[in-house]
Amino acid sequence: MQTLSELRVTNSSRSDTGIYTCSATSDIGADEAVIKLIVQGIPDAPSNVTVMNITSRSFSLHWEVTDNGNSHITGSIVQYQTHSDTEWNGQTSQLIVSSAETVATLRGLTPITSYYVRIIAENSLGKSKPSEVLEVSTEEEAPSGSPTEVHVHSTGAQSMKVMWK
User: Fold this and answer.
1) Could you tell me which residues belong to the region Disordered (predicted)?
2) Which of 80, 145, 90, 91 is nearest to 118 (CA)?
3) pTM of the model
4) Backbone phi, then psi, for 50, in 5-degree steps?
5) What is the CATH number of the domain that holds 121?
6) Which residues pair with 164 in a beta bridge?
7) Is the CB of residue 9 less than 8 Å from the CB of residue 20?
8) Could you tell me if residue 11 is inside a domain?
9) What separation in angstroms does the CA of 136 have from each of 90, 97, 139, 142?
C-alpha cells in the first residue's frame, strides 16, 4: 500500500526560500527527502544610484539591484526626462540595458540642462518598482563657432547695442 502525502505552502514570500526536509517513519523504517524551495518574484527597485563622468552632453550611471527576486536580472530600463513632473509618460526617453549590467551612459544630451533619471530592473517575472528619481545637470560647453551677423547700433552718446547670431 502506497500513501500519498502532500505539503502545501500558501501565501509564501521570498523569505520562505530555503532547504526543507520531509521525514517519514513507520514500523518498517524511516526515510526522508530534502527539498529546495525557491520563491520567485519581481526584483526590488534599484538602489545606490550614482552619477559619474558628467560632461556637457553625457553622463554615466551606476546602480545596484540588491534583491533580484530569486530570478536572474534580464535587463534594466534607464528612464530620463527634462521636466520634474511625477508623470513618466510619452515625454520620457529610455535607454535599455541588456542582461545584468548595472552601468549605463546617456549620450546626446543638451548642455546646461537638468535631467531627471530613474532606473527599473527586470527579470523573467516582471519589472521592479523604479529607483528614486535623481536630478543630474549637464555641464556648460564652449560655443561651436564665432558669432555671425554682428550688428552694432548706437543707443546714446556713451552706449551701444550689440546683436549677433
Assistant:
1) 130-165
2) 80
3) 0.77
4) -125, 150
5) 2.60.40.10
6) none
7) no
8) no
9) 20, 19, 10, 20
